[in-house]
Amino acid sequence: MFTNKAKILSLTVLSSSLLLAGCGLFGTEKIQKIDPPKSVSVEENAADKDTSAKQKKEENSIMTELYLIDKNGYVVPQTFNLPKTKSVAKQALEYLVVNGPVEEMLPNDFRAVIPEGTELSVDIDKDNGVATVNFSNEFKNYQPEDEMKILQSVTWTLTQFDGVEKVKLKMNGHDLTEMPVNGTPISENLSRETGINFDTEDVVDISNTKPLTVYYIGGEEGSYYYVPVTRRVNLNEKDPIVAAVNELINGPSDNSNLVTGFMPDAKLLEAPKYKDGTVTLNFNKNIYGSSEENVISQNVLESLVLSLTEQEGVEKVAIQVDGKAELKNDQGKKLTEPVTRPEKVNTGSF
């Protein structure tokens, strides 16, 4: 069940969408007698060709996250198979350009973020972990309300690549210290720590808080997706893992279009345990979200893993309930090992 304080979305409906599967079938008609061996041979040959074509396509492509804008204005990762190239970072940004090559691939209600006609280059200094982007003059042709979204999209798209920790922006060869339309300051250390999709609605004193990014659920039935949101948590909260879990349980702001898959009465029974990159969390039974024992929904699991692996040093998440680890997800898969972050986010609807 998704919850957002007063908002509740049926988990049963969502869980059913997690089980979506597709298959191709050959139609047949009994018009004339068909020699069975030949029929099987034709089908096998067709299947072999399909498999070969799929393998060839995969060999010539690379899975890439593009941070696009959804209909509610959130900057959301969507994963695409892009042509294999040596300049993966440059190609990723080129696919963010309005009316560029991404247009025919865009999911419903999503749009590109970089102004139409913008040309760009990307130089990566792996020694310092900095990607420097140089935009053409067309980069300044955007609506003021998109300014922060563009900054976030470029930063999060580039920092998916190995060796890129920070981003530096230029336009026509000149350093950008602020965005060209609304003058938003550009940090010298532009990175994921800068945040994304800021939610400060419930914050009274921002100076007494620190940023923390968690993943909520956006979209609608048949096309749900995970959305990274940066919230402000109290400086007194010493454990960022506990803070992230609490933000997931509490859910997004009331006016948000997002939801959480957690029940509001789920809670940790003890402090998280951390060892060699693995965090172990011990929840009460309300983490299940349904009457079925030992079953944790996949959306809860993935929200946790995505949120916690954004934190430095966290690579895997193990979950217990009342101290026991005999769990399975709602697809029937036993969770015998700690769960790692998926290689890419939002690879398909769920």
UniProtKB/TrEMBL annotation:
InterPro entries: GerMN. Residues 89-180, 241-330 form the GerMN domain. Residues 1-21 form the signal peptide. Residues 46-57, 328-344 have a biased composition (Basic and acidic residues). Residues 37-57, 328-350 are annotated as: Disordered. Keywords: Signal. This is Sporulation protein. It comes from Neobacillus thermocopriae.
